């Protein structure tokens, strides 16, 4: 089995998902793993050291991510070799590219995958549907399988092999559609995006205004967490839309999710139920969030969160 | 201008998922229009209102339950509907069937929700754009018209980052939640929608599915957690932080 990985680069940095994808690819015992890297900076491929990789295609000439250019360049690599599987991240970029690639190559597409195994020489993926209320196993019916993997579901493991891959430099293909990315505006937040964050502290309607979110940011800063919000908090104007977690917001998958003043509606749970550990801080012992929580504190968040911040500080001091 | 909106009926977000013989038990499903599609319908109506002489169509592929969502779109103001009565097994089949109708209708602008909340894939609109060989912009949070045939679209990506994209018609746009605020349906709107034309079509030959589903499973329920109450806040928080470090090992 030959695998090609689309290694995502954003703001000049390689995303962690690239190494998660490499870990996944190696678990499938492939004949060869190749990487497609869209970056001017060849130094990025240092991160791949220790993995056994056959070839890295470094594609230059895409200063701003633009889907048709990336797709045309990927297609050139895919058709010049014989791959059985193309892996990419279930990120905004992966979601932008892979359906188009699937329709173009008439190859089965399995997205938002949380597990991928080889069974009888066939790739079988597990993915959530109905916002994680149900799981399905599925595979493609075509020789080539396209897969996008949810961030944070695989712990990166380097086999620590030596030997260096072949590096092939290519210039990106041309745009073929009336489409031009003219600008990429940076977000205000310097924290990891919620969908990729390993630690998240979220606030709900109980935050009562946007100023109060400060106490969540203070706690988050100590441990390097990202801050999320419920839809009630977003719709009330306490937090921007990009912070919304849930069915109509972001799907997150951190190691730790701390829900402060969030009741735990089915739509909120839809976005965070796969968090490895859930902590709930709520004044109401009957709040549904406590049924999903690994640890719960029945208390006023305005009293509990500042203590949490202090405890985090003590903990960080100890390290 | 001719504007097409692609909609889908999905089970209400409150729906509990049950399995019978490892198959989905859909008997209790209450269907609603996919929430993201409402933003697409609203944007279609706004475009129609801003461009005199425009026409709007709602198109859906799936079982009969699609028609409720189509009527909802028409109650919001869409002019007419085309229902492709066919139960697809994967998103490529849906995209293919929709594309056949879109080729006939040749709209200048095609809108859809950025994803459907049931199978949660977001494939169909992007695949339609590929089949029709037109540009697509997914997760659209803002639309600015430069003139009648070109526009600037903002697409929301991770970390609040925005990609600003110039494109021209025809184009597919996948609507995000903050694109607009969908209008409510009025009783007269609902009455009027009942009389609007809704044609039912059976598709021609559909290619075989690219994806097959093997089995359905319910996720494992977590064991009950440790809930602290009635103690001083300091003590409870200290205990939980301690457990996060020693037991859960996440800090
Ligand atoms: C189609 C659809 C899509 C939706 N999508 C989403 C989505 O993506 N994300 C989402 O979050 N919701 C979504 N919702 C909304 C969802 O149904 C809930 O309304 C929402 O999640 C409630 O947010 P909340 O928990 O912050 O507020 P509430 O339900 O009002 O809960 C507030 C909680 O704060 C507690 N509290 C109050 N004061 C304090 C205090 N001082 N200290 C500690 N606790 C306190 C209360 O006991 C209560 O449990 C959606 C709904 C629909 C219909």
Q: How many distinct helices of chain B? A: 6
CATH C-level name of the largest domain in chain B = Alpha Beta
The percent range for strand residues of chain A is 25-35%
Overall 3D geometry of chain B?
A: globular
Give your account of this protein's structure:
- The complex is a heterodimer of chains A (319) and B (251).
- Chain A has 319 residues and is of the alpha/beta class.
- Helices cover 27% and strands 30% of the residues of chain A.
- In chain A, the strands form 4 sheets. Chain A has a 7-stranded parallel β-sheet, sandwiched between helices.
- In chain A, helix 2 packs across helix 3.
- Chain A starts with a strand and ends with a helix.
- Chain B starts with a strand and ends in a 5-residue tail after the last helix.
- Chain B has 2 domains: 200 residues, Rossmann fold (3-Layer(aba) Sandwich); 31 residues.
- The mean pLDDT of chain B is 96.
- Chain B is of the alpha/beta class and 251 residues long.
- In chain B, strands 11-10-9-12-8-1-6-7-13 form a 9-stranded mixed β-sheet, with helices on both faces. Chain B has a two-stranded antiparallel ribbon with strand order 2-5.
- The chains are: A alpha/beta (319), B alpha/beta (251).
- Chains A and B meet through helix 3, strand 7, strand 9, strand 10 and strand 13 of A and helix 3, helix 4, strand 9, strand 10 and strand 11 of B.
- Flavin-adenine dinucleotide (FAD) binds next to helix 5, helix 6, strand 17 and helix 8 of chain A.
């Amino acid at each position: 089995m030959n695998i090609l990985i689309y290694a995502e680069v954003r703001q000049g940095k390689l995303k962690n998902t690239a190494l998660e994808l490499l870990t996944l690819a190696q678990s499938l015992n492939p004949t060869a793993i190749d990487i497609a890297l869209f970056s001017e900076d060849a130094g990025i491929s240092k991160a791949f050291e220790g993995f056994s990789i056959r070839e890295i295609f470094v594609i230059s000439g895409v200063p701003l991510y633009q889907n048709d250019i990336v797709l045309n360049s990927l297609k050139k690599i895919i058709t010049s070799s014989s791959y059985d599987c193309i892996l990419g991240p279930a990120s905004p970029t992966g979601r932008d590219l892979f359906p188009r690639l699937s329709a173009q190559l008439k190859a089965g597409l399995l997205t938002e995958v949380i597990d991928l195994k080889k069974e009888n020489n066939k790739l079988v993926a597990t993915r959530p549907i109905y916002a994680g209320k149900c799981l399905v196993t599925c595979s493609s019916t075509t020789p080539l399988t396209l897969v996008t993997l949810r961030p944070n579901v695989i712990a990166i493991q380097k086999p620590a092999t030596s030997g260096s891959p072949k590096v092939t430099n290519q210039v990106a293909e041309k745009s073929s559609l009336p489409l031009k990315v003219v600008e990429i505006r940076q977000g205000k937040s310097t924290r990891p995006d919620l969908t990729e964050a390993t630690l998240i502290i979220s606030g709900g309607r109980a935050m009562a205004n946007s100023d109060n979110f400060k106490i969540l940011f203070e706690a988050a800063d100590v441990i390097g967490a990202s801050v999320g919000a419920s839809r009630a908090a977003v719709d009330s104007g306490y937090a921007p839309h990009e912070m919304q977690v849930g069915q109509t917001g972001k799907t997150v998958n951190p190691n730790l999710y701390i829900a402060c003043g969030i009741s735990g509606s089915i739509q909120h749970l839809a976005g965070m139920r796969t968090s490895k550990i859930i902590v709930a801080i709520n004044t109401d012992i009957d709040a549904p969030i406590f049924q999903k929580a690994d640890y719960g504190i029945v208390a006023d968040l305005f009293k509990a969160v500042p203590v949490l911040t202090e405890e985090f500080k003590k903990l960080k001091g100890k390290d | 201008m001719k504007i097409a909106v692609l909609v889908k009926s999905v089970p209400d977000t409150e729906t509990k998922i049950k399995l019978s013989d490892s198959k989905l038990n859909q008997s209790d499903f209450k269907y609603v229009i996919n929430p993201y599609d409402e933003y697409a319908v609203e944007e279609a109506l706004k475009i129609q209102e801003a461009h005199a002489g425009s026409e709007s169509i709602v198109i859906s592929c799936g079982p009969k339950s699609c028609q409720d969502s189509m009527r909802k779109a028409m109650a919001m103001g869409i002019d007419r509907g085309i229902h492709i009565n066919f139960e697809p097994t994967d998103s490529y089949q849906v995209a293919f069937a929709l594309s056949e109708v879109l080729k006939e209708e040749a709209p200048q602008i095609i809108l859809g929700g950025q994803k459907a909340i049931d199978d949660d894939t977001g494939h169909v609109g992007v695949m339609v754009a590929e089949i029709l060989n037109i540009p697509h912009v997914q997760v659209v949070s803002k639309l600015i018209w430069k003139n009648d045939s070109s526009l600037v679209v903002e697409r929301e990506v991770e970390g609040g980052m925005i990609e600003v994209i110039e494109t021209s018609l025809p184009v597919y746009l996948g609507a995000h939640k903050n694109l607009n605020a969908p209008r409510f349906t009025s009783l007269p709107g609902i009455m009027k929608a009942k009389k609007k034309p809704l044609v039912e079509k059976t598709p021609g030959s559909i290619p075989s599915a690219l994806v097959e589903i093997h089995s359905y499973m319910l996720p494992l329920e977590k064991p009950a957690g440790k809930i602290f109450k009635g103690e001083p806040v300091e003590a409870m928080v200290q205990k939980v932080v301690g457990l996060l470090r020693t037991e859960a090992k996440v800090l």
